[in-house]
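Memo to structure team: turn this sequence into structure tokens by end of day. - J.P.
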Amino acid sequence: MNHESKIQQAINTLLQFDSMCSGREFLLSSFSKEDMIILHLMTENDLFRDVYTIDTGMLNQETYSFIHKIKNEYGVSIKFLFPDFKDIENMLSTYGPNLFYESVQKRELCCSLRKVNPLKRLLLERNYWITGIRSEQTEVRKKSALIEINDSYKKCNPLLNWDSVDVDKFVKSENIPINSLYSKGYRSIGCAPCSMPSSGNRDGRWWWEDGVRECGIHRIGDHNDS
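Reply from structure team:
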């Protein structure tokens, strides 16, 4: 599939999903390059839907500044999801602020409380969501489909078949604004303590770990979700 075909596939997927959800879907955005492409495609095709972002309390200042810029320039209403403060208080009191460096289990606990649980709360009310995941990013994402339907949600992954070349080509051709951290060598941007510049798609996320590096958001609804 060539680049132009992938663009059209992404648009068709968004339109199909919009029809399935009667316009009730939302874009879950970390304001990555992929999410900005989707926001651009939605805007260009008159799909003015809600945009949610998860503020873990641990994001880079560059990310906060970029979100503020996009809110003003695109005129979109960005809705923020936050973790339950009692959960965070208890976690930090028990394990300390840098628990995620100590074990995979503690890192996954932090991700679960800061990211997964806030999204789960939203999905109880609105279970139609759009993501910017791509199949080349992780083994978990290779198992995804353009549109997924299960007992927990209906999920749309319009850029699933894009590679990093497609992403960069579209960003350049459409002059799409991106987070300044990309110019500093970041390839994947999450919480500040858990992201760093890298050469691979996900190498800079939880770089001290081996194996599949996921926060758990894209496992909601599968057999690993609890």
